[in-house]
Write a structure and sequence with these properties.
The protein is an alpha/beta fold. Helices cover 37% and strands 27% of the residues. The protein is globular, with a radius of gyration of 18 Å.
Length: 252
């Protein structure tokens, strides 16, 4: 049986707006297995991004518990939580958030050196990851404004992986890309997962969701359905129909 890397119990997140309580996550019990490519789907406002930020320690729950890699992170101080994220979490977002005044290599190095003191070791790992995602040394010397959207997002993926995270979190990573660039990023995420990387991705996109082996459907802060897809294979019509049928059942 695959070991769980993240477990939540009675997870709640409530926001107060103008004195009105908005319950975004509601008593959510969830298990994320090590090595899985887990996809979270659901309508806008269902709590998908809130869940991702809570699981990754970027936000703290109002109530409930999150255990990540055997450590209860929901009780950590902000400083210890920041250190935990550096060592255990990688992030890829729809907005790429590269520093405009730094080269792509320097953006990645800045993240890597937060964890490792060896500049040589970080640079070597970065070059290997850049080669893996199809970015040349010339690309790495460019500033973000000189890169295409697809190149920048691939660079952001390298930044997310530079510290060898236990979990890679991605929030709509193809949302700002054209179809060709988006497909390339999905291919990289799939390959990364097949090499053993655990991934949680939030998406509205069926094409992105097809890459996961497990799809969770969130509505009103509660997981109301789950679809097991197994390992990804290219152009699998039965897989696509299974996911579409599940989404129709969920009211997508």
């Amino acid at each position: 049986m695959t070991e769980n890397i993240i477990v939540t119990q009675k997870l709640c997140k409530t926001f107060s707006t103008g004195g009105v309580q908005q319950h975004v996550l509601r008593n959510l019990d969830l298990e994320i297995r090590n090595g899985d490519f887990t996809v979270v789907m659901g309508p806008s406002g269902s709590g998908k991004s809130t869940l991702l930020y809570a699981l990754s320690g970027m936000d703290t729950p109002t109530l409930g518990e999150i255990v990540f890699g055997g450590e209860r992170i929901s009780g950590l101080s902000s400083d210890r939580l920041a250190l935990f994220r550096r060592r255990n979490c990688g992030f890829v977002f729809q907005q790429i958030y590269l520093c405009d005044n730094m080269s792509l290599m320097d953006n990645v190095m800045a993240s890597g050196l937060l964890v490792s003191r060896s500049r040589k070791e970080v640079a070597s790992r970065a070059r290997g990851l850049f080669a893996q995602v199809g970015l040349s040394e010339q690309d790495c010397r460019k500033f973000p404004a000189q890169l295409s959207g697809g190149q920048a997002q691939r660079g952001a993926l390298v930044r997310g992986l530079i510290n060898g995270p236990a979990m890679l979190f991605a929030d709509e990573p193809t949302g700002a890309l054209d179809s060709s660039s988006g497909e390339a990023v999905l291919d990289l995420l799939t390959e990364t997962n097949q090499n053993g990387q655990s991934i949680v991705i939030v998406t509205h996109d069926v094409t992105s969701a097809l890459r996961g082996n497990r799809v969770l459907y969130l509505r009103d802060g509660v997981v109301c359905g789950e679809c097991g897809l197994g390992a990804y294979t290219h152009e699998d019509a039965a897989r696509r129909e299974r996911l579409r049928g599940f989404l129709v059942e969920m009211g997508w």
